[in-house]
Write a structure and sequence with these properties.
The complex is a heterodimer of chains A (about 190) and B (about 80).
Chain A lengths: L1 H12 L3 H23 L2 H17 L10 H19 L4 H16 L9 H20 L2 H12 L4 H8 L3 H19 L3
Chain B lengths: L5 H11 L5 H13 L1 H18 L10 H8 L4 H7 L1
Helix pairs in contact in B: 1-2, 1-3
């Protein structure tokens, strides 16, 4: 995968815009998912994910091929998400709850038919609840919880990607887990 | 409930990070056998992680890539051709 991506990047650097389309196709779901779990709104996540790819395209010259492209790309995405969170008004949590609910309903993988209605509601409610708890985390914990438990990156990868010492990543994931435990652990 | 030592909670997190020294692991295991509050704490931590991991994978909306491509700064050639 890395070899294919690096070849595509070289083509993009040479001015082949179509090669970038393939890169977007490869990474769009991962980038969108990071943004959605960080922000909680489908519309905002699309906006942020688009911006991530546009910035990656414009700054592709600064990408060093000895690094992992995915890490470089996710770093752009997480920076944009954090900027967005910081710019939000204090009523952000209320907004996020409403828009998050809408996004999850639209994007739920619960099958539309063939399941008991009660089961569906229960599952959706749970998903929304879990998402709300993630959104309540301070962004520096949230980002690490999302990268570790949703994107399944290792703590070393996260440390390298965010350019934060491993010890700090550990402290933050510990605090993030304790914060989640207070709500989710009681269910 | 919260009476247990910070040290045991630290060991729990080391365990969850899969980065626990063998001696810490032994101490933690032994402690969990005897301390109900810590067992509960550890269980709640694991449950929280399970819930986060159980969230469904989300996909980018249809047409996402083409919307990105439309927004990219145009290549010089194309700008020239349009004029």
């Amino acid at each position: 995968m890395e070899a294919i991506v690096n070849r595509k990047i070289k083509q993009v650097m040479k001015g082949d815009q179509n090669a970038f389309n393939d890169i977007v196709e490869i990474y769009k779901d991962k980038v969108f998912q990071i943004c959605f779990r960080m922000i909680g709104s489908r519309a905002e996540a699309e906006d942020l994910a688009q911006e991530t790819f546009i910035r990656a395209y414009v700054n592709i010259w600064s990408f060093k091929q000895e690094r992992k492209f995915s890490s470089w790309l996710y770093r752009i995405a997480t920076n944009l998400c954090i900027d967005r969170i910081r710019k939000k008004k204090p009523d952000f949590y209320l907004d996020a709850e409403i828009s998050g609910t809408e996004g999850l309903t639209l994007y739920s993988t619960v099958p539309a038919e063939g399941k008991l209605p009660e089961m569906q509601v229960e599952t959706l409610e749970m998903q929304e609840m879990i998402q709300r708890e993630i959104l309540k985390l301070p962004e520096k914990y949230r980002i690490i919880i999302v990268l570790k438990y949703i994107e399944e990156l290792s703590l070393n990868e996260i440390s390298e990607m965010l350019d934060i010492p491993l010890g700090t990543v550990k402290t933050r994931i510990h605090r993030g887990r304790e914060a989640l435990r207070k709500q989710l652990g009681k269910l | 409930m919260d009476a247990c030592s910070e040290r045991m909670i630290l060991y729990m997190h080391e365990y969850l990070d899969e980065d626990i020294p063998e001696d810490h692991k032994k101490i933690l295991e032994h402690h969990l056998e005897t301390c109900r509050a810590c067992r509960q704490h550890f269980y709640e931590l694991k449950k929280s992680i399970f819930y986060v991991q159980s969230l469904p994978n989300i996909q980018a909306p249809p047409g996402f890539a083409s919307r990105v491509m439309d927004k990219l700064p145009k290549e010089k050639k194309r700008v020239g051709a349009r004029r």
